[in-house]
Design brief:
Strand content: under 5%
Number of helices: 3
Largest sheet: none
Shape: globular
Order of helices and strands: HHH
Helix content: over 70%
Length: about 90
């Protein structure tokens, strides 16, 4: 994994995190890194969900599409707001 791959992952994660924050009801105060982390982890969860629904022919992990990444980010955001930030 090269440096450009990591930078691209942060940028896409941030965009997915922003969309998830926009879709989630209510105002959510999060910084850049927290938003990017929600998007990146949401993309991983979206990939797992996609792998459970649509099996890849070679059996390897397949990255999530944009919609599943947003759904995964919404799940992460809900978990964060209800279990981590609530304490």
């Amino acid at each position: 994994m090269g440096l450009l791959h990591i930078i691209w992952m942060i940028i896409v994660g941030f965009i997915v995190g922003i969309i998830a924050r926009f879709v989630y009801p209510g105002a959510i105060a999060m910084g850049f890194w927290a938003t990017a982390a929600v998007g990146i982890i949401g993309s991983l969860i979206g990939g797992i969900i996609g792998g459970l629904i649509w099996r890849s022919p070679d059996g390897k992990f397949h990255p999530a599409g944009f919609i599943l990444s947003i759904i995964g980010a919404l799940i992460v955001l809900w978990l964060y707001l209800n279990f981590v930030a609530a304490k």
